[in-house]
Amino acid sequence: MSATIIDGKQLAQKKGEMIKTALERLKTQGITPGLAVMLVGEDPASETYVRNKQRACERMGIHSRLIRLPTTATEQHLLDHVVQLNEDPHIDGILVQLPLPVHISTETVIRAISPEKDVDCFHPLNVGKMILGETGFLPCTPHGILVMLKEIGVTLSGKHVVVVGRSHIVGKPVGQLLLNEDATVTYCHSRTENLSSFTKQADILIVAVGRANLITEADVKEGAIVIDVGMNRVNNKLVGDVEFASVRDKAAFLTPVPGGVGPMTITMLLENTVYAATKARAVMA
Ligand SMILES: NC(=O)C1=CN([C@@H]2O[C@H](COP(=O)(O)OP(=O)(O)OC[C@H]3O[C@@H](n4cnc5c(N)ncnc54)[C@H](OP(=O)(O)O)[C@@H]3O)[C@@H](O)[C@H]2O)C=CC1
Ligand SMILES: Nc1nc(=O)c2c([nH]1)NC[C@@H]1CN(c3ccc(C(=O)N[C@@H](CCC(=O)O)C(=O)O)cc3)C=[N+]21
Predict the structure, then answer these.
(1) Which residue CA neighbors atom 4 of ligand 2 most closely?
(2) What is the distance in A from the centroid of ligand 2 to the CA of 28?
(3) Domains of the chain by range and CATH?
(4) Is the shortest distance between the CB of 231 and ligand 2 below 6 Å?
(5) Is any atom of ligand 1 closer than 6 Å to the C-beta of 166?
(6) Per-residue pLDDT tens digits for 80-105
């Protein structure tokens, strides 16, 4: 079998058109949603993602503001900015790019973001609501993955989803979202013994680890749907966590890197920003 490649870039564009329509409607009401991105330090990967987010905002006509702080910035300095942004009526969404330098507590900073402006869906209040299946923000990468799965028309109910990785940004929330869709979810992580015995059981395998070629053809069931979240730079080339060439021959569907989950993450961020603006300003999008 040769897998159908799920074109995340194209799907992101298609969803982007829908967001644009909502934005145009907001514009007629004099509303331009605003997104603030805080970037601490000069990590090259973070620079790229932040640039992509800004470009996407420009394309769409979302007001974007980048706040750059040096690696030496104190936690208090960051918190002062967050408080200001919480109160700024032009800003509907606040994203603090992770990872932060080690001397700054990620938890403290995330908790300081107003839950109404938490477009990443990282605040404990929003994470809780998401787990309970209440209406509200959905985390960008997990939501992007869910949209991709819906696009290919797979029934999630009763399917065995195996998630490799349990980070707060991808692994843990994507499992919860799919559990809410009635999938049977197994989590694997760095302490999992015999990883392959689990991944081979997956109808849908989601890999979010950050290790090139962690998953090869031998780890995948014939006909599985494989979602590769990993972003690794190998010999100056961007690759995922899944050995694309071999898994392609075994899976039914496979996401590429680049051009898979990444562009969907950005589109879902824009969607959350529009959602935040719509709610905050009590209008119909
Ligand atoms: N495309 C996109 O939109 C996005 C891509 N990414 C990419 O996805 C990848 C994961 O990101 P993120 O979740 O933030 O990463 P983290 O480093 O926060 O988490 C990695 C997870 O992988 C687990 N892990 C590590 N080694 C192994 C192993 N050998 N076998 C099984 N599990 C293992 C860890 O386990 P433990 O918990 O036990 O330590 C942890 O749960 C990265 O490459 C990142 O760049 C991230 C966000 C968005
Ligand atoms: N507060 C916070 N929110 C995040 O959502 C967040 C974060 N911190 N820290 C880092 C991770 C990573 N992440 C990506 C976003 C877009 C691409 C993306 O656009 N990727 C393109 C290519 C990028 C390239 O060319 O390098 C693609 O896969 O096609 C990738 C990764 C968001 N993250």
Answers:
(1) 97
(2) 31
(3) 30-116 (3.40.50.10860), 140-261 (3.40.50.720)
(4) yes
(5) yes
(6) 999 999 999 999 999 999 999 999 99
pTM: 0.98
Rounded Cα gap, residues 280 and 36, in angstroms: 15
Distance 27 CA to ligand 1 centre (A): 38
Among the residues of 67-139, which ranges form H helices? 75-87, 106-112, 124-132
Query: 3-state SS of the chain: helix, strand, coil percent to 5?
Result: 45, 15, 40
**Hey, what are 172's tokens?**
């843990």
pLDDT digit string, tens, across residues 232-257: 999 999 999 999 999 999 999 999 99
Tokens of 165: 């990785």
Q: Looking at the CA of residue 45, tell me the nearest atom of ligand 2.
A: 26
169 lines ligand 1 (CB under 6 A): yes
Report the chain's terminal Cα–Cα distance, integer Å. Answer: 43
